[in-house]
Specification:
The chain has 10 helices and 12 strands. Helix 3 packs antiparallel against helix 4. The termini are far apart. Helices cover 37% and strands 29% of the residues. It is an alpha+beta fold.
Length: 294
């Protein structure tokens, strides 16, 4: 109690033991786990905190490892997380984590766009925006001569450390995927969003279309060496449809867009994973490999 009174006085607050004791009771009543060690003098400390130290360490590492969050925002978030810990615990949050991130976004535009997109999803409203790519000269090139898109966002997906917005595009007359960090000038409108098409499954879309990028979805059979099971599960999850073929091989059947991105994933394994069916997908894969050798 003497330490508390001395600290308050140093901050310009003059009070009494009785008032501080009442304040402590108020804090306990509000749900803060304040513990009193009965003794001479009495000692007070916070017991259980909202976040345990191992949880805070995981959150700090996740923030620091995210390539999407600008460095100054990451530092601010980590400081706020540290503020929920004790002064002794806060020192343990200064962790040496190597992330291998060569580049982070320079401004807060993408950060703000995420918040706006979430608002649009929660309120069922359309947004307008522009979309850009990069030229060989590292200049932003806006799609279709700075065309303004009218999008009905259905949700956001975090994949491969990138944010993607999924929604209906009035211009394309279909569901499209936009990289959030390439969205420019997003604005929330008063127009009601286009309802999701019947049967649209956001989870399936996120797992198949975004991971392998756009393209016609079909069932593909993959002939795999046994050592490839970990890679198949990493990509398609533990529920992937597989069967043992012989002592050294298994077959996996996956529903994916037959896109160059999927072909590139197969190529990574130097023949240890091969496309066997359908024949037209196997032929398209071979054709892409031939083009790459030109």
């Amino acid at each position: 109690m003497a330490d508390i009174l001395a600290h308050l006085e140093a901050e310009g607050i003059i009070t009494s033991r009785k008032t501080v004791a009442q304040d402590i009771e108020e804090l306990i009543a509000s749900g803060i786990d304040l513990v009193c060690n009965a003794g001479k003098p009495k000692e007070y400390f916070i017991g259980d905190r909202y976040f345990e130290l191992p949880e805070l360490k995981l959150l700090v590492d996740a923030v620091r490892a995210s390539r999407f969050i600008p460095k100054h925002k990451a530092d601010a978030l980590i400081s706020k997380l540290a503020a929920t810990a004790s002064s002794q615990q806060a020192g343990e949050l200064q962790r040496s984590l190597y992330t291998g991130i060569a580049a982070r976004p320079v401004g807060d535009k993408a950060y703000v766009a995420v918040d706006l997109l979430h608002t649009a999803v929660n309120t069922g409203k359309k947004i307008t925006c522009k979309y850009f790519e990069w030229s060989p000269g590292k200049k932003k090139v806006y799609k279709h001569r700075r065309k303004v898109y009218h999008i009905s966002p259905y949700g956001l997906v975090w994949n491969n450390d990138r944010y993607y917005a999924v929604g209906w595009s009035d211009s394309h007359d279909k569901i499209i995927t936009l990289r959030v960090d390439r969205i420019a000038a997003p604005k929330l409108t008063d127009a009601d969003a286009v309802p999701k098409p019947e049967g649209f499954d956001m989870a399936f879309y996120a797992e198949s279309v975004i991971q392998m990028y756009d393209g016609p979805v079909c069932e593909v059979a993959l002939a795999c060496e046994n050592e490839m099971m970990k890679h198949v599960i990493d990509r398609f999850g533990e529920g992937v449809n597989t069967k043992i073929v012989d002592d050294g091989h298994f077959e996996a059947r996956v529903s994916v867009p037959a896109s160059p991105t999927f072909f590139a994933w197969v190529f990574t394994f130097h023949g240890s994973i091969q496309i066997t069916r359908p024949k037209e997908v196997a032929a398209a894969y071979k054709e892409m490999v031939k083009k790459a050798l030109r």
